[in-house]
Amino acid sequence: MRSHLLNDTTAESYRRSVTEGVERVARKLATTRGPFTGVTPAELAPVIDAVDLDRPLGDASAALDELEDVYLRDAVYFHHPRYLGHLNCPVVIPAVLGEAVLSAVNSSLDTWDQSAGGTLIERKLIAWTAARIGLGPLADGVFTSGGTQSNLQALLLAREESGTADLSKLRIFSSECSHFSVQKSATLLGLGRDAVISIPVDRNKRMQSVVLAAELETCRAEGLIPMAIVATAGTTDFGSIDPLPEIAALAEEYGAWMHVDAAYGCGLLASLKRRHLLDGIERADSVTVDYHKSFFQPVSSSAVLVRDGSALRHATYHADYLNPRRTVAEQIPNQVDKSLQTTRRFDALKLWMTLRVMGADGIGELFDEVCDLAAAGYELLAADPRYDVVVEPQLSTLVYRYVPEAVTSPAEIDRANLYARKALFASGEAVVAGTKVDGRQYLKFTLLNPETTVSDIAAVLDLIAGHAEQYLGENLVHA
To answer: Per-residue pLDDT averaged across 94-109, rounded?
Structure first.
């Protein structure tokens, strides 16, 4: 069994095994005809259930053969130009290289004595990101598992900075299009979902700052405390960006912590053409960024950043075996002092490798490409009588729905759109997402692949229309 341990005596075996795995994936990438095979849970589950985990194959090649059947064949491939579903991006090669290195070395980013260089590389990238945001010289932060954890930590800091012991008085304000993790965080922090005040959005799906001001004033009049305002820079459904300068002014006036959830919109930090869309983010108290959404990084690669690094003390706990208090006086840089996690992967290395090979401008160029594609896709949808498109995109998301020429009920149109999405997924030809707008069923393109073209979008729209028409035709016949 020792022959399977990665060390100086098994380096050649490691090289052979990893090379074979890379070659298998490379062949798969080169030969995938669509983003998905259309396999169903009922079809795939028996294949995986049949694997006896107590009878090892003993050989990496055999395990890779089996992996073809249980995973690689039916994986959903985000690199395919007709994967237009969720906020999943194709990944850049320098980041994948970084992933291979960090997995093999297996540094843990909790303490200096477990990851010397990794600690400083992560800190350098946090400083780089904070500078891009414009948070100032006292800024700090830490890498996280994703936007949900980042939002949770930011709101934890906001709760503690409020200095209020009576949690029942605390209120969080966010738009009706904000991420569900705001409500989840309120529950986890002991505030309850009722603590979140949902602010309506305008026709462009941006928080209405006038309504926010009124709600803040009501909160104050009722003796409640505006703990935090969560502005979204890139909503999940619409890619909309809340009016950051107006929100910052209100946060300052009412003494509320301003958090910007830029998990999606953080790609604008590297944009060559659209950085101005984030104007006002520099006034935030905390910011969420998901590099694994719009920096083309493998999952996970994310961070939470704060204007005043001293606020991170609210996540600090000392353990004698890990980060005893004396290490603070000795100025030993332990990242666990800033993090909700203890053991933590060196995910920062992926972004480091990307910046050192491609540069920030290279990332920004790719993100601008998908935003340009969304603009072209909007024009296509707006000119197509078969579709109703909700809002002109600020980033790279399009929300729309098929509307038949013949008059039928809104509920029947809902069912036709839902059917079309499911049928398209089952065909494996393309993947799109779905959502609700004002209670009605809509479809969604999340465009994060620069290889996707307007022709791809047009082809998928034809496929969707075909499935929807088939559904309506069959139901009209039966009716």
So the answer is: 97
